[in-house]
Amino acid sequence: MALPYNDVDDRHTRPEAALVIPWFKESFVRDGQSVCKGRWVAIRHGRRICYAQWEDVGPFQSDHWQYVFGVERPRPNRNNDAGLDVSPAVRDFLGISAIDVCDWKFVNVYEVPDGPWALYGDDNTAASLRSHLRTAGARKHAQKVLRTPPETLFDR
Fold first, then answer.
1. 8-state DSSP, 47
2. What is the pLDDT of residues 28-83, one digit of tens each?
3. What is the pTM of this model?
4. For residue 15, what are the CA distances in angstroms to 3, 10, 70?
5. Which of 1, 66, 87, 141 would disulfide-bridge 52, Cβ 3.0–4.6 Å?
6. Cα–Cα dist 36/93, whole Å
7. Helix (H) or strand (E) holding 43
8. What is d(CA 72, CA 58) in angstroms, rounded to the nearest whole number?
């Protein structure tokens, strides 16, 4: 999905980023590295909610932090004043048409429930977190089994 703000401009972090992005202090690593790309967003249309990562900038704007992190409405644009762009997969999951109304909010990765969004993507933090938890859980279980005397393994 895309929102009309980019925290990096000309390979440097924008000056206002530290002041306007709520998670900036906890996520900042170095100048020019985005703290927005990959952030999770819950998008709602009707009774359906889809989760997607912020991967692009738009529509038509790259500096509208007042909308993305504030209370302003999206700026007028040729997409009927759209405030976000979504992928075809998100569009189809939500059942929205080309220009339709929806709302959205930022969510933390641990708030992202199981669903198709947790399965795909090169930088999918929800998928890697689940994989890590599964691996850690399997490792913990294996360690427990290894510490269990062989004669009691099947006595459970």
1. T
2. 999 999 999 999 999 999 999 999 999 999 999 999 999 999 999 999 999 889 99
3. 0.78
4. 19, 12, 17
5. 1
6. 23
7. strand 40-45
8. 16
